[in-house]
Each structure stands twice: as C-alpha cells, then as structure tokens.
C-alpha cells in the first residue's frame, strides 16, 4: 500500500515535534549546568536572549513580535579567573551532526570570539551523548575527521559529564575544561591524538 502525502506530512510533523522537544530538553540541561557552575563559583554563564521587538500587544500577556537582528551565540559568560566563554548548543536525534548545522552568522561570531581569546565552542548533543567541542576543532572538521559531519564516536574525546545537567566544563575523561582554557591549541592537539575516526 503506497504511503500518502498526508501520512508523510503527519510523520514529518511528529518527527519535528520530537526534535523540538529534545532540543528544549538539551537546552534546559545546559541551563542546569550553568546553575551548577554558578553555585560552585566556577562560572557565570547565561542563555543569550533572542533579539526581538514587540509589534502588537494582544492582552493577557500575549503579543506579536519579530526578530530584529541575527542572534548572538546561544550561551555567553565568564569563567572563574576572568576568561570569556561563548558557545552554540546543537542537538540531533540522528546519529550524526553536520558542520553546517551552524549558520554562517553563528560561525562568524564564534570565530570572532575565539580570535579575541575567548573559550569558543559547540556544545553538541547526539542522541543521549553530550560533548563540548572547541571551535578550532569544529571549524576544521573536515581536516580532523575527514568529512563535514561527526558521530558520537568521533567526539568521544570531548564527551562531558551528565548528571541530569550537561556539565560542559567537565570532560568525562577527567581532563577538564580548565586545562583547555590555559593551554589552548596544545590541548586540542593532544586531545585529537586520541580521536576515533569512523563511519
């Protein structure tokens, strides 16, 4: 029996709803990580609000609005010691994350912050696995992994702890982001020696 357009449309809507819910869960788990680090004096990091303007108030707390500018990186803040940190949060329910999941504007923003000394990264979720990938690695994805997408296996060196919150400052292998902050590119080079290439 052939699949109808309506069945395809409903399946697509369902998948979009699942993806949207997973994305919100991921973002909330990162916010919980931000609260965890704030409570311990390790960092002050906030979700960056989307720039928008109210166009019409409809009453009852409801309004129509529109975005007024390109969004800034998803999360921005300061690590203990004074170094800035900025990162995008990207999640997929598939088995791979493409480099171009970041828009050109997002890539440019991360590059600008990175070039000025900030910790710039992509906090990536692939299914139920979470990673904090330095921008210098994400930017050169094809060079490091041989293609413009990554799997959870590729990102294993960058896996972070998860306790209900995405603890993006704490790599699961125990190296910790603090070392990355101090040594920059050398840390990335050392991590990539253990990278797992694969399908």
Describe the 3D structure.
There is one protein chain. This protein is α+β, with helices and mostly antiparallel strands. The chain has one domain (5-192): Trna Endonuclease, Chain: A, domain 1 (3-Layer(aba) Sandwich), CATH 3.40.1350. It is 36% helix and 30% strand. It contains 6 helices and 11 strands. It has a 5-stranded mixed β-sheet with strand order 1-4-5-7-8. It has a two-stranded antiparallel sheet with strand order 2-3. A hairpin with a 4-residue loop joins strand 4 (75-79) and strand 5 (84-92). It is globular and about 60 Å long. The two termini are 34 Å apart. Mean pLDDT is 81; it is low at 194-199.
Topology:
Layout: H1 5-39, E1 43-47, E2 52-59, E3 62-67, E4 75-79, E5 84-92, E6 97-98, H2 104-115, E7 119-126, E8 129-134, H3 135-139, H4 141-145, E9 149-150, E10 160-162, E11 166-171, H5 177-183, H6 185-192
Parallel strand pairs: 5-7
Antiparallel strand pairs: 1-4, 2-3, 4-5, 6-9, 7-8, 10-11
CATH fold description: Trna Endonuclease, Chain: A, domain 1
Mean pLDDT over the full residue set? 81
Based on CA atoms alone, the radius of gyration comes out at 18 Å
Given this structure, which CATH class is correct?
Alpha Beta
* Main β sheet profile: 5 strands, mixed
How many β strands by DSSP? 11
Shape: globular
Q: Which structural class is indicated by helix and strand composition?
A: alpha+beta
Second rung of CATH, namely the architecture: 3-Layer(aba) Sandwich
Low-pLDDT parts are 194-199
H/E series: HEEEEEEHEEHHEEEHH
Strand composition percent: 25-35%
Strand order of the largest sheet: 1-4-5-7-8
Classify the helix fraction into a percent range.
25-40%
Query: What is the number of helices?
Result: 6
- Alpha-carbon distance between the termini? 34 Å
């Amino acid at each position: 029996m052939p699949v109808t357009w309506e069945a395809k449309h409903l399946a697509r809507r369902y998948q979009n709803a699942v993806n949207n819910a997973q994305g919100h869960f991921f973002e909330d788990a990162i916010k919980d990580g931000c609260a965890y680090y704030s409570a311990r004096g390790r960092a002050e990091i906030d979700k960056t609000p989307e720039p928008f303007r109210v166009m019409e108030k409809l009453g009852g707390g409801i309004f129509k609005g529109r975005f007024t500018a390109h969004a800034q990186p998803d999360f921005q803040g300061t690590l203990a010691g004074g170094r800035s940190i900025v990162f995008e949060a990207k999640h997929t329910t598939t088995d791979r994350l493409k480099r171009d999941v970041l828009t050109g504007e997002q890539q440019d923003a991360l590059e600008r912050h990175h070039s000025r000394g900030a910790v710039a990264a992509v906090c990536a979720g692939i299914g139920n696995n979470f990673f904090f990938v330095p921008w210098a690695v994400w930017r050169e994805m094809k060079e490091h992994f041989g293609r413009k997408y990554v799997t959870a296996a590729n990102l294993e060196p960058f896996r972070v702890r998860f306790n209900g919150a995405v603890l993006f400052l704490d790599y699961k292998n125990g190296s910790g982001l603090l070392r990355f902050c101090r040594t920059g590119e050398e840390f990335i080079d050392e991590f990539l020696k253990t990278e797992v290439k694969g399908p």
